[in-house]
Design a protein that fits this description.
By secondary structure, the chain is of the alpha/beta class. 39% of the residues lie in helices and 22% in strands. A 6-stranded mixed sheet has the order 10-9-8-11-12-21, sandwiched between helices. The protein has a 6-stranded parallel sheet with strand order 15-16-14-13-18-19, with helices on both faces.
């Protein structure tokens, strides 16, 4: 059986070139597809095509752009099962998680399609007689969208849809570890009849293509989700050209567990936040900060819950945790497990690469918990992005909050408590952009703003109505009549 080839998409045409392999991280014998490797010249061509298309696309009425986005959603919906299976095969997450993400991407396109009919501005009264004044939204221009591998269809969707409905044209650069899911959105845009040049897609190495993207003359804005290291570099490069920049980067997210919590629900929420999606979420729980009065009981219950989690190929029914995305991420997981052993002693559970049978074909790691972690340890300060949880002891709610905030990151946080006063103290004092109460730290919806604080994020928020703030500007009009 021949391996399918997935080409780049520039100015409405599928373009050929040398390829790289997209392999299944649960079974590295399987090549999911051959992806055409783009070049800096391809980025320039895509940006120029997007520049040529900006006038007609931005002049199209917002509801007409919305109708096209609804067509994209319909096409993705018809391919729902296929897209879920492909995502599991290229990224490794379980099939139920993959299908949930596909559904989210579809809903995002439908949500922003509706914004085309609600693209409001500001109408205010003037201090002067017979002066009518108002402000209307206008597109920014050509936007470069750089997306990560861990949510390979949802994150491209939540960048592409608001950019397009606001009247911008786009160049999409997906992560090389899982580009097929984003490719399917672009395919749907093509099938839906979005005009040539409006959507462009170039896949390949992040270093050379990222540099070409941020330096392409037509680019006016760059939205990036990925590592802090790359995000900081991108900010510096974009600043040289005064580009609009949006960065979503790392996290070291806490879940605070108080003695008055719903105990069983708290155990489930911490296990879910820490280990589902193999811990490969920027919003995953990587620190559980537990009040001293229930620390021993909670840790014992959490270890037992973790023992029941099943690791394996995400296409297999009943599997809870898939593989790491690639050999590099598995190596990072194992490196931090060794750091944890040096800092905190043997893990309470896990701590090994899984081997034997089908495990030998993939990048599988046991879900791992370290107890007795203190806030000065690397295990409590550095992002791992894998199924490794640091459990920390605190004497009181105030101590929990102090430890939770003593971190350079500020993406998400969770609290497990039945005390309403503690909930409000947490809401107003927690230094994070996404807060959950009696829920896992991971698991957000598309209708509200998404983004963090401190080193986790920079620029306007993504998702919800706030997403349009990055992808549009204002034109203010004063009219004497």
């Amino acid at each position: 059986m021949s391996i399918p080839v997935f080409k780049n998409y520039i100015n409405g045409e599928w373009t050929d070139g040398p390829t790289f392999e997209n392999r299944n991280p649960a079974n590295t014998d399987e090549v999911v597809g051959l992806m055409v490797k783009g070049s800096a010249a391809d980025i320039d061509g895509a940006a120029n095509a997007a520049q040529a298309a900006i006038g007609p696309w931005s002049s199209m009425p917002g509801p007409a752009r919305g109708a096209l986005l609804n067509k994209v959603a319909d096409i993705l919906d018809r391919k729902f099962d296929q897209l879920g299976e492909e995502m599991t095969r290229e990224e490794g997450k379980t099939l139920p998680e993959a299908k949930g993400e596909v559904r989210r991407a579809i809903n995002i396109f439908r949500y922003f399609a509706g914004e085309g009919s609600r693209m409001g501005g500001h109408l205010v009264p003037s201090e002067r007689d017979r002066v009518h004044m108002f402000a209307i939204r206008k597109p920014v221009g050509v936007c470069g969208l750089v997306t990560p591998w861990n949510f390979p269809i949802a994150i491209p969707a939540w960048k592409m849809a608001p950019a397009l409905i606001a009247g911008n044209t786009i160049v999409v650069k997906p992560a090389s570890a899982s580009p097929l899911s984003a490719w399917r959105i672009v395919e749907a845009c093509h099938e839906a009849g979005i005009p040539k040049g409006v959507v462009n897609f170039v896949q390949g190495p992040g270093g050379s293509l990222g540099s070409a993207l941020v330096n392409a003359a037509p680019i006016k804005a760059v939205s990036f989700t990925g590592s802090c290291e790359v995000g900081h570099w991108l900010h510096g490069e974009a600043s040289k050209r005064r580009l609009r920049i949006q960065l979503e980067m790392g996290g070291k997210n806490p879940t605070i567990v108080l003695a008055d919590c719903d105990f069983n629900a708290a155990v489930e929420n911490v296990a879910n936040g820490a280990f589902f999606s193999t811990g490969q979420k920027c919003t995953a729980t990587s620190r559980a900060i537990v009040e001293d009065a229930i620390y021993d009981k909670f840790v014992a219950a959490l270890v037992e819950r973790t023992r029941k989690l099943k690791v394996g190929n995400g296409l297999t029914p009943g599997i809870d945790i898939g593989p790491a995305i690639d050999a590099g991420q598995l190596e990072t997981n194992l490196k931090y497990i060794e750091i944890g052993r040096q800092e905190a002693g043997e893990p309470l559970i896990g701590g090994n690469r899984l081997t034997g049978g089908d495990y030998d074909k993939g990048y599988f790691c046991e879900p791992t918990i370290f107890g007795g972690v203190t806030e000065n340890m690397r295990l409590a300060q550095e992002e791992i992005f894998g199924p490794v949880l640091a459990v920390m002891r605190a004497s009181s709610f105030d101590e929990c909050m102090r430890i939770a905030n003593n971190i350079p990151f500020g993406l998400s946080a969770s609290i497990q408590t039945t005390n309403v006063s503690r909930v409000f103290d947490y809401v107003y004092k927690m230094e994070a952009g996404l807060l959950t109460v009696n829920l896992p730290s991971a698991g957000v919806e598309y209708q509200l703003p998404f983004g963090g604080t401190k080193d986790s994020s920079f620029g306007p928020k993504e998702q919800g109505p706030a997403a349009l703030d990055f992808y549009s500007d204002y034109k203010t009009v004063y009219l004497k009549y």
